[in-house]
Amino acid sequence: MSLQEITQRIRAAEARFGREPGSVQLIAVSKVQPEQRVRAVLAAGHRLFGENYVQEAQAKWPGFRAEFGPVAVHMIGPLQTNKAKVAVELFDAIHSVDRPSLAEKLAKLAQARGASPSLFVQVNTGSEPQKAGVLPGDLDGFIASCRAMDLPLAGLMCIPPEGEDSAPHFAALARMAAANGLTSLSMGMSGDFESAIAAGATHVRVGSAIFGARAYA
Ligand SMILES: *Cc1c(COP(=O)(O)O)cnc(C)c1O
What we know:
Strand order of the largest sheet: 7-6-5-4-3-2-1-8
Helix content: 40-55%
Strand content: 15-25%
CATH architecture: Alpha-Beta Barrel
Number of helices: 9
Largest sheet: 8 strands, parallel
Order of helices and strands: HEHEHEHEHEHEHEHEH
Bound molecules: pyridoxal-5'-phosphate
Distance between the termini: 23 Å
Structural class: alpha/beta
CATH superfamily: Alanine racemase
CATH class: Alpha Beta
CATH topology: TIM Barrel
């Protein structure tokens, strides 16, 4: 598939599910992709990307930004607290706020800098033991504690359990966001982004359907 096809499918899904035209942003997930593939998507005019690893993004994006001008890059992978400072300087949004120690660190950095990337709380909607994310039952308290630290939150993010229908997870995330007055929803990947748009996604994170399969070293 191509960037253009995915973009068309997003616009078609907006129309089909009664969403405002242009209300869904496409995050092109470029982690571990060869430089030429990323360069081709930049050359096609796309300006919003997702990365999973701070070091990889640090090596890649300052150069691309110097060459192509402003590009928004969102951190969608787990973030170690000791990389938070680099992350807030490099990324326009962080989708993986998932624990109190990270929230505290981000709040301190936001105070010191007078600015913060957009922040999404990652929710472990399937309550999977090995997966990152705040458990649904802990979410209201976690959001309240973030707000008590003056940490601005944009929305919620989830990665549904593999091999399960994503739709109930997307619906649950949308309900939790609405209940907490949050308007952004980061959900949907290559295999299920249309279902996420039906459920209210504002940000879909699509990698392999744009760039091809990832070749991990
Ligand atoms: C890698 C990744 C994606 C993209 O996955 P694809 O199936 O390649 O579209 C989306 N979200 C997160 C959190 C990821 O780690």
